[in-house]
Amino acid sequence: MIRAYARLSKNYPLVHMFNILLVFSILILCTYQLLQNNKIEYAFGYIVALFPIFIFAKASTYKSKYLGDR
């Protein structure tokens, strides 16, 4: 999965940027809701965003090592 996402991010950088913006938007929205409403339910957005952030980090490492992206 990490190798596939690394290839996708190299071949389609706009899709990769859209994915990053989507995850960042989820984090910002959940942070705002958590601070504004003081309800712990909005912390679920952080849990949802952890998996894509992990994939982004591992794919970046893979891309720099094996796909020659600098």
UniProtKB/TrEMBL annotation:
This is Uncharacterized protein. Keywords: Membrane, Transmembrane, Transmembrane helix. The chain crosses the membrane at residues 12-34, 40-57.
